Amino acid sequence: MSSSPLRVVVGTAGHVDHGKTALVKALTGIDTDRLPEEKRRGITLEAGYAHLDLPGIGVAGVVDVPGHERFLRAMVAAAGGIDVAVLCVAADEGPMPQTAEHLDVLRLLGVQAGVIALTKSDLLPGLGPDHQELLMLELRELVKGTFLEEAQIVECSSRTGKGLPELKKALADAVWARQATPRSETGPLFLPLDRAFAVKGFGTVVTGTLFSGALSEGDEVDLVGAGAKARGVRVRGLQVHGGTIEKARAGQRTAANLASVEVSEAPRGAALVSAGTLESVGAVQVLDVEVELLPWAARPLKDRARLLAHLGTAQVAAVLALIDRTQLLPGERALGQLRLSEPAAAIAGLRFLLRGDLPKDAAASAKRGRAHATTLGGGRILSVSPRRRRRREADVAALQALAGDDALAQADRLLLESGYPGASPQRLAARGAFTAKTAEKALERLAQAGRAALFDREGRLYAHASVLELLEARVLQRLREHSDPIDPSIAREELRQRSGQPPQKLFARALAALAEKGELRADAERVHPPGIAAKLSGKDADAQERLATLLDGAGLTPPRVDELPALIEQAPPRAQALLKALGHAGRAAKISEDLWFGAVPLADLRKKLLAHLSAHGSVDAQSFKELTGLTRKFAIPLLEYFDREKVTLRIGDKRVLRKGER
Predict the structure, then answer these.
(1) What is the pTM of this model?
(2) Which of 254, 301, 312, 639 could form a disulfide with 248 if both were Cys (CB 3.0 to 4.6 A apart)?
(3) What is the DSSP letter of 263?
(4) Is residue 338 a contact partner of residue 277, using CB atoms and an 8 Å limit?
(5) Is 365 in contact with 374 (CB distance < 8 Å)?
(6) Which CATH number applies to 191-274: 3.30.70.360, 2.60.120.280, 2.120.10.30, 2.40.30.10?
């Protein structure tokens, strides 16, 4: 290979039998028709792949797409990775229905550069003096208002070689310009698969155009979408344009050798994503989108229209829910959601195509300048896996923010909709059109502005300030609802569950904020209302005093917890509440699930234990039993209690005095 692989893919487009495959072979020396059926019929059925050496620039990937309308699905699957288009128009026939449809497909998929190849131009001299002039007028009318409006038209012939140097020069200029703004290699990994095959001695190889991110030898990936379920798959090796490389970057045609995967487990329509990112990148069924209907569509698209959506290399049935209007008129753009019939591989920023059945009034399409009618429109994905939206002001505002150019507004909206789980830079980059770096900057700026809070430093997880405020309000409400005169406090975990099960660290952040404001008190196990609990009175006070007297009088051999209700003549739930109240008041302590001890005997034992440790340096289970006269039933739980209370430190079979204890 004379040059390094570029991050640009050149792709053909045009009507069937307009010389696309022959042109690719003439330019690259590679015949992209690899199937016997293609050889027999003389037409391309599946997309073919080659590479074009542009001296002084590098090697660009080449995609040759089928031209027949029956194979539009294969064309669209390949066209999603095209950066520079070669629109092929045969000199003897001029623009045809698939010429127009392919041009629409390229525009809708975001292609912005290309050239027009007037193929079979060696036939022009025999077509009459007016033919070429009329042909040029048709071509300019066809591409008017598209990315090819100012494109160079190159007369060429694969048979004679006429115009091929000029075409290669025009492509080199377009590729050079496109290479200046390549696809993002710092975004999440997303490689839509267009082929999978077995290579003897190597196993399964998958190919596709790397849409986003980078892929290295040894990486672990997940296969998602189109029913793929392989997880944690190792990449054995990589090739670009037939050459082995260590790392493939966004924008390159990539072949990856996967370990322990069968060909059937890597279907077309699936995608490779980084292992472990399924919660944010992967197979999804709901997408926020910006969509446009082609100006020459035969009729408006109504809300909840049923269509075929082409996403990456997948085709899936979908319903288009319009959020900012009730119907989409030809030539208009709208905000909405694509609701897919089955999970598909998708990522924010990916462009898609919408197709429908040929309408009965297809003549109307022809009158508008297009004879085709199956491609209706397309657009771009704004975010993946959002909640289902409705036609209301808040959802319209959310989609407007996601469709706009303000990255901070996009991050703010996505973080708000992330709710309690929050978002890390990686999650934000997967859900919206960010790289990991730009997502991190956006989250940091939101935090600086008081719009976000970093609640998990290790996981780099942020929560929106509004979500944190809502959680604080919910925590206080649930604490107030827990009205028990004996024990007004509530277990931390129970309160977390009642508050919507936020992540532990977010819940801790909310408790700390509320404690700082004096709204509550929290310890390791329970959350208390602010201030001192009201003293018990009447029967409650009498029952509590009986329990305290019983525990203190029992010394170091108290009754089991399940024996206490009968001893103080209270129902078990009431006895439990009284025990906890004594604990909060410092008059009793929970030693184990079955044992509570009075505070007085525990304090006496603590003094005795400290004295023993000061004199002897350590204590084991046997010497503790001798010191206290207790059986193992009481001695072991008490030793473990003093460990938890950080009075003692266990080292092997012995306990020593913790530093700072006296």
Answers:
(1) 0.76
(2) 254
(3) G
(4) no
(5) no
(6) 2.40.30.10
